[in-house]
Amino acid sequence: MNDQKDTGIAYILLVLGGYLGLHRFYLKKIGTGILYLFTGGLFAIGIIYDLITLSSQVQVYNATMTNQAQANQRAQNAGDNQTNQNS
Question: What pLDDT does residue 86 have?
Answer without folding.
Answer: 65
